[in-house]
Each structure stands twice: as C-alpha cells, then as structure tokens.
Amino acid sequence: MNRKQSPTAMTAAATRDAAEVGATTAEFTMRFSSTPRGARLARRLVEDRLDAWGHPYTSTVNETLTLITAELTANAVRHGHVQGRDFEVRLVATGKTLCVEVSDTRAERVPPLSPPEAPCDAETGRGLMLVAALADRWGIEPRAMGPGKTVWVETAVL
What we know:
The protein is an alpha+beta fold. The chain is 38% helix and 24% strand. It has 4 helices and 5 strands. It has helices at 7-21, 36-52, 60-79, 127-134; strands spanning 25-32, 87-94, 97-104, 137-142, 149-156. Strands 1-2-3-5-4 form a 5-stranded antiparallel sheet. α2 (36-52) runs antiparallel to α3 (60-79) and α3 runs antiparallel to α4.
C-alpha cells in the first residue's frame, strides 16, 4: 500500500480488495501508531469500512462496532503500548457475523475477561464492561504473529 495515499484512498483500495474475496467474506487489516491519533484513525476507518460494506454510519451495527473499536484501540494505546511498536486492527465480515480484533505487542498486560466494576467516582475503568455488554462474544488470545495479545469481539449482523 502506498503510504502517500489519503485514508480515503486507502479505504477505497481495501474495499476493492474485500470485494475480490467474495460476497460472503470481507476483511480489512491495518497497523496504526500506538498513539491517541492512531486510535482515532483506526476507529474512523472501521466506521468507514462498515459503511462501505453496507452498514450505514447511523445503523446499530456500525455504531456498536465503532464504539467497541474505540474502546479496544484506546486500551491498546494506554495499556498495550510498547515504545516503537504499532497496534493492528482487523475487521472481518463473514455471513451474519462481524469480528473486530485489536492486537498489541504487550503480552504481560492482559485484561480480565470479567472486568471489575469501576468505583462510581472513577473517570476510567468502564471500557471493557461496555465491550462485554455490547458484544455477542469476546475474548483474548496470544497474538498469532509475534509477541503480544489480541482482543477480539464478535457481533451478529441484525
């Protein structure tokens, strides 16, 4: 992929690539800098990709997966950051299921599958509770290619 392309051009190229895969499967994968700006760009591209795949911006599916992506990428930046390493987002549509995966390179900081409830006055600590509430299924596994972990979420397409 040409690094001088705009995000819109990269999105269009990824849509063409997904269309070649077939009508029942589409995939988008990209690495992002482990910064708040990278997390924001990842969220925006997932939102755009879902719209391109037929899930409009204002649909429940798009809004849900965009929110989940925002939480997972923020966690990758805040808790999974390793100096000089990126995080990766993978979005896959198969039939009636959408899956988003966020991988970072920090293996020793694995989030709990049953997130504890944050104190009422806490300003943080509710992201994974939101993910658990919105996802049909979610989990954590070792990163397939290299060190780190992957947090994945599946939701049914309504």
